[in-house]
Design goal:
With 311 residues, this protein is of the alpha/beta class. It has two domains: 4-103, Winged helix-like DNA-binding domain superfamily/Winged helix DNA-binding domain (Arc Repressor Mutant, subunit A), CATH 1.10.10.10; 136-296, Rossmann fold, CATH 3.40.50.10490. The chain has helices at residues 4-18, 28-35, 41-52, 62-69, 73-82, 88-103, 118-138, 142-152, 168-181, 192-199, 218-229, 267-285, 290-303; strands at 158-162, 185-188, 206-211, 233-238, 251-254.
Length: 311
């Protein structure tokens, strides 16, 4: 008999597919992350093989994937069925579609060509962005969220935030908020020099949160590999088609990126990082809010043109 947990996960995957009305595919990787906690050891090996060079690893035969994962062909078939596909070839076709979407150029439709006023479009835009946030949150697994909060909320660790061309501003804002919540937080510019210098200090006592979105930056991927080699823990925040940097991560979190302009939207990403920030703040401030109080004291002192007093 199917467990309640498995049914809930299946329902969440089905809801994610049902809510996806804008023509984008619900990715295989999203379904894997939602199912991950309920997979058997053998099924988990198949899932890890699929994600190792995503989505290319799955554009093969069932037997070849089974051999790569070190499991039997029926194990691959079971996982494919649990992911909601009727056959391996159907899953492979879905992965091919993902690859096509990942490589496709940005699309843009003029929002004011359908006799809409700017105000009417603003209302529609707000609804669409809200839907993007909701789909992003629905694609997250409880286990991944909790693990990310555990990693970022561990006061013994040094925390690093970094992003790419567009996502760096979101990473910077998140790092500023985190600096108020906890010590030992750094923001890294998306430059080779800044990351090389940081790698001198990054090690087993470090957690790195890296944002990398379509079109993925080779420098970010190289940095992710170096972070893993240094023994640090890596969290990758990316789009549903997965940056290659995800292969080196302990936790992968995805957000929707199809925006209202020709460019990726960072609105769901900002919402995700604010979620993580709020959960970490709640955890830390529940037993010690000294740092927050000191921040408020210093801020008031600056605004009033005087130095903050010592605690």
């Amino acid at each position: 008999m199917e467990s309640v947990e498995n049914k809930d996960t299946k329902n969440k995957i089905d809801a994610l597919r049902d809510s996806n009305t804008d023509g984008n595919t619900v990715t295989v990787s999203s379904a894997i992350r939602l199912l991950k906690a309920s997979l058997s050891k053998a099924e988990l090996r198949v899932a890890e093989a699929l994600l190792s060079n995503y989505p290319v690893s799955g554009i093969t035969t069932a037997s070849a994937l089974a051999q790569q994962a070190g499991v039997s062909d029926p194990t691959v078939t079971r996982l494919v069925s649990r992911l909601g596909f009727a056959s391996f070839s159907e899953m492979r076709d879905s992965l091919l579609k993902e690859l096509e979407l990942r490589l496709s150029p940005p699309k843009y439709n003029d929002p004011l060509t359908l006799d809409r006023t700017a105000q009417q479009y603003a209302i529609e835009a707000a609804k669409e962005l809200s839907n993007q946030i909701e789909r992003s949150m629905n694609s997250l697994s409880e286990g991944d969220i909790n693990l990310a909060v555990d990693m970022l909320g561990d006061l013994r660790k040094d925390i690093y935030f970094t992003g790419g061309r567009a996502s760096r501003t979101v990473a910077m804002q998140a790092s500023w908020a985190m600096q108020v919540i906890r010590p030992k937080v750094r923001f890294l510019e998306d430059s080779e020099g800044a990351r090389i210098n940081a790698l001198l200090d990054i090690g087993k006592n470090s957690v790195v949160l890296l944002l990398d979105y379509r079109r993925y930056q080779k420098e970010a991927i190289a940095f992710a590999r170096s972070v893993q080699e240094a023994g640090a823990s890596l969290i990758v925040v990316t789009d549903p088609f997965l940056s290659p940097a995800a292969a080196y991560a302990k936790v992968v979190l995805t957000t929707e990126i199809e925006g209202l302009s020709p460019f990726n939207t960072m609105v769901p990403t900002l919402a995700l990082l604010e979620l993580l920030t709020s959960l970490i703040a709640r955890r830390i401030f529940s037993f010690d809010d000294t740092r927050l109080n000191r921040y408020v004291e210093l801020s008031h002192g600056m605004l009033l043109g005087r130095k903050g007093t010592s605690s």
